[in-house]
């Protein structure tokens, strides 16, 4: 806000843009995430209505445009400042027609400021206050960078064709038409698009009328309600669609590539039920006359919530009954529910500025689980929500994290905050608050907030104020510590003897093990000995003592010799970790072994113990003994967490005590045998969604950890499939296990696995299947073949949007080869993907994250010190911090005496195993 006021003041004084720029440059030292040079448009005028005409040429990939903006001049000024980028503006076409004086004014100066993406119009005299109409003609390019108005490609009957589509969030509407490209400048939009006769054109609103002009068709769309520029959308191409109507009478369509409309059915069903669900939940009807959802072959994000025309990657919208997995379906449901949530939270009520992006994304993430739980109660999606919290912990435990609310100045900084903090920490603290306020009160508050701010903008404080008003709780005070500072607490819990109280101490948890300085207001919950007895408290300050719920004597354990267990953070709804003293940890271990702890809490205990171990706060042996009590685990979410933890344990042992790595793998494999036996390799008729997902995860983990039986079976089924695509031996849910098994053994001249995978890749036209293959091709144990896979990534056969999948398959065995490849090809990679920050960021984070030594951290740091631009600072420093944290863990584990013996014991299982598992 300060920045905007400053810019306004300077320009209002009539100073030239040069002064403004000098001021900015002085501040442009990019040392921290918080930049003070807030570059917001001066509020000389505000737009009310845009009349936009676009004429894309799908052969030359250029487009012509006209815009007429009805606006109001608010301040005495001779400037109008708005945004434009990569556009040629026809100078002679720029005019301002004022209402008051009925004059047509021509600017004396038209300036395009490339660096700040501004269009500055200077007029001879001070402009009259009040309404005016600003018009101009321009030309632009349908670019290949998946932002602005861009080109995507598809093939019909072997012929390559172009389509034109838009992606404007966060700040790329200005690449399509000159506009006030900030979320707070809401206006109505009326679009007209001229397209070839045989093409479909879609936009936010329904078509009002059409006219044919020779080889072109002019399509006039209805005027939209008031909305932000980043939500405007246009798509031109060839599509099929399926449609249906919601119970409230809204027509919903899913558009797909020609011939694939059946694949839109699942998403259509989800949308049909989700819209009425949100209508009820938010207490406000879906605000637009129709909803279209469309799959775009080249797409940078996963999906985009354009008002009334939601765009998706193919993989997040389309489901093939045979080749999609249960996990693919769940992803589609979550993504659709997320984007549709934005129709209210984001589109109807919009964040005032990008600092509040987390409100949009954290909220949509949280509420998508609510909708999916309503649609598919058997999926246990709230149990799976804990993954969101953990992924947020992983980033927020770094020194290089950032607060949820971030000051954002230049548009280039916005991309960086679409991260796990805005989405996952945001969603997690909303869940924490909802639990604290109770679901009913929370819902009341939200629907009031939506009503009050509909068609307007809001900031974080506005939401807290409404929630306080409705609940009577001090929401602002409670939430401030979570949104304004980075990090989160670990709560250390201690009891003394048979005491009835627990002593809690909070400190900031950092993945490096260092104690941070942060302090939070923590809603603590506790269960004692059974879930019948629970309590909740607000812990303020460093140390607090909570009285245990008195009824604990009634718990079943009270008669037995075993004292009651105590579990904090029931259901993992709080955004904190817990460290128990030895006695409490032991009780929890036996409670898990005796199956008296709920899945989310088992998950929490395992995940916190892992994190404390990796931060060198507890020996690895403590984690290993805990893992051992999960032998019989069959819950999907808990097992996925165990698999994840196992990969990291294997990584640390592999680098600290290589001789013990085989025992580690054996021990880890033993943990999954119960589940593997129960699930088998073939779908069981009538099985649940979670069983189908778990089968895929467990079998692929067993293959990765070298379980010989699993590898042999995976290979057998893969071969059967290569020989006959119609075989039922290789259903989609187990394919990754098969792919991993054969690629791992592809080395030297034995190219069967790699070559077969490429053949399957070329054959498939389902994005999800292609991604699955890409996700494994770089997992060979032969460095040369890893390089070959990475070279393939740069070939025209892989769309830029999909390169991330290949990177995700790189493992320990391929890390050196992939780092060498990255450094050798850096210029090419930078040249190709440099404009797409999130994509290039993955190249770094994926490859760097495999390393665990200080020397490598130094080498990587030195490399990027000279090779990476500021936009990647954050990614580079986060990745290097992670390597150093791993290096520290490796050092500790290396020094941990007895580990080799312990792992041997664990690997041999049975008699020799530690006493804990038998308690
Ligand atoms: N608003 C985002 C899309 C977006 C992301 C635009 C980054 C610009 C930059 C959209 O609502 C979104 O969050 N999509 C997610 C999927 C979601 C289920 C988490 C995505 O793209 O991954
Ligand atoms: Zn979103």
From TrEMBL:
Record-listed E.C. numbers:
3.4.11.-
Q: What's the cofactor?
A: Zn(2+)
Recorded GO MF terms: aminopeptidase activity; metallopeptidase activity; zinc ion binding
UniProt-listed InterPro entries = Aminopeptidase_N-like_N, Aminopeptidase_N-like_N_sf, ERAP1-like_C_dom, M1_APN-typ, Peptidase_M1, Peptidase_M1_aminopeptidases, Peptidase_M1_dom, Peptidase_M4/M1_CTD_sf
Cofactor: bound how, per the entry note?
A: Binds 1 zinc ion per subunit.
Q: Which residue numbers delimit the ERAP1-like C-terminal domain? A: 565-884
**Residues bound to Zn(2+):** 338, 342, 361
Is the keyword Hydrolase in the record? yes
Q: Which GO terms describe its biological process?
A: proteolysis
Q: Which intervals hold domain Aminopeptidase N-like N-terminal?
A: 47-231
Q: Domain (Peptidase M1 membrane alanine aminopeptidase): give its ranges.
A: 266-482
Give the UniProt keywords, A-Z. Answer: Aminopeptidase, Endoplasmic reticulum, Hydrolase, Metal-binding, Metalloprotease, Microsome, Protease, Zinc
Q: How does it sit in the membrane?
A: Peripheral membrane protein
> Record's Pfam families?
ERAP1_C, Peptidase_M1, Peptidase_M1_N
What are the catalytic residues?
339 (proton acceptor)
User: Where is the protein found, in the record's own terms?
Assistant: Microsome membrane
* Record site: Transition state stabilizer: 423
The family note in this entry says: Belongs to the peptidase M1 family.
- Write the protein's name: Aminopeptidase
Species of origin reads Riccia sorocarpa
